[in-house]
C-alpha cells in the first residue's frame, strides 16, 4: 500500500476507501493524558518563552482551537475518538500496566521491552505541580480552560483533573 510510505500524512489526504482499508488493517492505540498535565509539560519545555504559567495559559486561550499548537490542542480535535474506533486507549499514569498488557497481546515479552516506569511517582509529581500551577491561574482562566477542554474531559476519564472540578 502506498500509504505505508507516507510520512506523517493526515488521514484527510486519502480517499474514503483508503482510509477504511488503513483503519481496518492496523491496531489503533490512542495515548491520552490529562489536558492540564499536557499544559504543564509544554510550559516546562518552553521555559523562558513565557514569563509565568499564567501568561502561558493566556497565550493558549488567546490562540484558540484554530491557531493553537498541537502540544495543547484538545485531544478530540487531534485524534477524533468519536470517528475512529481505537482498539486501545492508554492513559498516562498507567503506562507500565497498560503497555505490558499491549505487548502481551502482541505476543511479545513485556518485561524485557519496557523501561523501568514508576507511574506512582509520576502521578505524585504531577499532582504537586498541578496544585502549584493551578493556584497561579485566575478564576476566569480556570473557567476558560475547563470550557476549552470540555470535550476531552467528557470523552476520557480524567476524574482527578483540576479542570474537571
UniProtKB/TrEMBL annotation:
> Known EC number(s)?
2.8.2.-
- List where in the cell it is found: Golgi apparatus membrane
- Keywords in alphabetical order, please: Carbohydrate metabolism, Glycoprotein, Golgi apparatus, Membrane, Signal-anchor, Transferase, Transmembrane, Transmembrane helix
Keyword check for NAD: no
Question: InterPro entries annotated for this entry?
Answer: Carb_sulfotrans_8-10 (IPR018011), Sulfotransferase (IPR005331)
Q: Does the keyword Glycosyltransferase apply?
A: no
Molecular function terms from GO: sulfotransferase activity
Q: Name one GO cellular component term.
A: Golgi membrane
EC top class, as a word: transferase
Could you provide one GO biological process annotation from this protein's UniProt record? carbohydrate biosynthetic process
Q: Which Pfam families match?
A: Sulfotransfer_2
Family in the record: Belongs to the sulfotransferase 2 family.
PANTHER family of this UniProt entry?
A: CARBOHYDRATE SULFOTRANSFERASE
Record's protein name:
Carbohydrate sulfotransferase
Q: Which organism is it from?
A: Grantiella picta
User: Gene for this protein?
Assistant: Chst8_1
Amino acid at each position: 500500500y502506498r500509504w505505508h510510505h507516507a510520512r506523517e500524512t493526515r488521514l484527510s489526504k486519502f480517499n474514503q476507501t483508503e482510509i477504511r482499508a488503513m483503519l481496518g488493517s492496523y491496531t489503533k492505540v490512542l495515548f491520552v493524558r490529562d489536558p492540564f498535565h499536557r499544559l504543564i509539560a509544554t510550559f516546562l519545555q518552553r521555559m523562558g518563552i513565557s514569563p509565568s504559567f499564567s501568561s502561558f495559559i493566556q497565550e493558549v486561550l488567546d490562540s484558540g482551537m484554530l491557531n493553537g499548537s498541537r502540544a495543547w490542542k484538545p485531544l478530540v480535535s487531534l485524534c477524533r475518538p468519536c470517528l475512529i474506533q481505537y482498539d486501545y486507549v492508554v492513559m498516562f499514569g498507567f503506562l507500565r500496566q497498560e503497555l505490558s498488557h499491549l505487548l502481551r497481546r502482541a505476543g511479545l515479552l513485556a518485561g524485557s521491552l519496557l523501561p523501568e516506569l514508576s507511574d506512582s511517582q509520576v502521578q505524585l509529581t504531577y499532582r504537586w505541580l498541578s496544585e502549584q500551577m493551578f493556584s497561579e491561574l485566575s478564576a476566569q482562566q480556570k473557567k476558560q480552560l475547563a470550557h476549552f477542554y470540555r470535550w476531552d474531559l467528557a470523552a476520557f476519564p480524567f476524574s482527578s483533573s483540576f479542570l474537571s472540578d
